UniProtKB/TrEMBL annotation:
Segments of this protein annotated with the region Disordered: 1-25
Assigned protein family: Belongs to the glycosyl hydrolase 13 family.
Residues in Glycosyl hydrolase family 13 catalytic domain copies: 154-561
Species lineage: Bacteria, Bacillati, Actinomycetota, Actinomycetes, Streptosporangiales
Short name of one Pfam family: ISOA1-3_C
Keyword set includes Signal: no
SMART domains for this protein: Aamy
SUPFAM superfamilies: (Trans)glycosidases, E set domains, Glycosyl hydrolase domain
Xref: InterPro entries: GH (IPR017853), GH13_cat_dom (IPR006047), Glyco_hydro_13_N (IPR004193), Glyco_hydro_b (IPR013780), Ig-like_fold (IPR013783), Ig_E-set (IPR014756), ISOA1-3-like_C (IPR048650)
Name recorded for this polypeptide: Glycogen debranching protein GlgX
Naturally occurring in which organism (per UniProt): Salinactinospora qingdaonensis
Keywords, in A-Z order: Transit peptide
Amino acid sequence: MTKTPARDTAPLAPTLRTAPGEPTRLGAHAVPGGMSFAVAAAPGARLSLVLLDPDDGSVVEELPFPEEYRVGNVHTMRVFGLAPERTHYGYRVRTDHDGSTVPPILLDPYAKALAGTGPWGHRPRYRSAVLAADFDWGDTPRPRIPTEDLVIYELHVRGFTRDSSSETVAPGTFAGLREKIPYLNRLGVNCVELLPVFEFDETDNTYTSPMTGAPLLNFWGYNTVSFFAPKAAYAVGSSAARELKEIVRALHNAGIEVILDVVFNHTAEGDHRGPTLSFRGLDNDAYYLLTPEGQYRNLTATGNTVNANHPLTRSFILDCLRYWASEFHIDGFRFDMAPILARDSTGELMDNPPLLEAIAHDPVLADCKLIAEATDATGLDQVGSFPSYKRWMEWNGRYRDALRRFLIGRSGAANDAAARLVGSPDLYPDRGPTASVNYIACHDGFTLADWASYDRPHNDDNGENGEDGIAVNDSWNCGAEGPSDDPTVLRLRRQQVRNALLLLLFSNGVPMLLAGDEFGRTQWGNNNAYGQDNAISWIDWDLAEQNRGLLRFVQRCLGFRRAHPVLRRRTPTSGETPEGWPYPPVSWHGRRPWEPDWSPESGLLAPLFHQQLPAGPSDTVFIAANARSAPTEIHPPSAPAGTHWHLFADTGAPDGSDAHAVGSEPLVDTSVPLRLTGHSTVALVAHPAERGHTP
């Protein structure tokens, strides 16, 4: 191949031998003797394949797609003599309206890798590249964890190990995450949910730091540039795909599943002011929702909205998901602003969205967990009503809100919180508890420690005059805003965080922890840290030692959950007592057995969970949560015949006795009332009478 001077001019005369490509296999693929290219474009478009220098990205050759190679709206070409590892390329679309303007070189939507990305924080000069398919998975098994047994741990790849306190060899990378797998095993989670790892441009944030004037970065990555290519800056070497596969393989070997947070509701191209990277230049009408006047519908608050149910876009999304599930062995997907995927070309919701149905029933995706963030930027809330096709789970934001409101003592919150603890049967009467991904904190909002330390967001560092972020947080600072050395304030915060974690991990449904919450991570009140690539977003691993009592508490709660199937039900609970059972699956109590207080001012929740196991003894757990500042005394219901109550946890107790190791819970003296301090939770477990543990 003869290199020409770097330029973007009219097409060069082809010097390479070509032939028709493979129209049913979009993207670039190695074939005998060269490469095959195929790309779909709008009807009537005239396309060229632009070959680029792999060292500096300059144009080497531009080959028009011959009309006779086109099949329908798919332009194909086989180019002989190209080496896959040295093939960088793009597409150029020409129209009759170009005049003297040279159209931009577009990325291949199906590119499996992007070159020109540079190190983290440097503005990229993207070009499509070819990925070598040479990874050996060996005999690594996929965990295939039953949904009811999942414990999800949400983390940001860079933020998880970027801080020097992580003591990793490759901080802020896939390799850094790999170094932390032993920690994840010790903690007791079995699934990581990774914030976006598809290629994104972190330099596209338009805001600047009010402190330094320096540009802020788009740290979270919810601005996808390429949906098939892993984030190059998360790699230590030259192959992000290989390093991501290595971390998936290592996690699977450790029994941990991998869920990807995917963003199909909008792209990095933004509105008419944004860059033309790929989709806009190839087929704007197919990929985006447009008004009759041709303007971009902005249902995502990002500038554009993907036309997800257009047949072309729908095929693209399905191909993408299949690729990650098959090539990267990904175990599931969390879909950002998923209601966008249920809208038609006018932006209206569809009763039977073909994309969601196709994802649910796709045979390649049959083993994948599908999780919808069932809200979008229009204010639509489909929690409990998202089209499920008996497959989709949901981030349950109503769980978060109900538990927060109950724990800070809001009037009338107990009834709603009670429904959330038992798997939200009002929202999922047919799907059951495993449809609900329960969480109290996630990347979007306060960390759990900040929820107990701030009454309002402190987002001045974001450069938006403190007007961004979630406005209503249902938080309580426990008597002082932000850092405090007041022992009373610190004790309340300690108890509130433990209350939230215990109730989360004892609830029916799938619990999700935000990385670092298990040892008190703070963002100093920032509840929208998407632009903070610094200590605000990076996990401070020194806190794991400073707050080792909290970490031990969480480890023991996770161990307790694993040991008790009554907390991991698949089917909705009932207040009816099955034949032969001493108790119904769930019963409600108060200061006295069988006398729950559902008044608006009730600050006490006291459920008893019971399950007769097919073999062995029954499984019975009792919880009492006091959301009021005053202490209270309760009389627990009797333990099942042949058992006694043992104390697993008391969040009002000091470190070391706030939670006991599974199997070592001390006996409870039921001849006297059980005392709950203000803002505390107690958990009891029934063990056979012959156990000899004493208080």
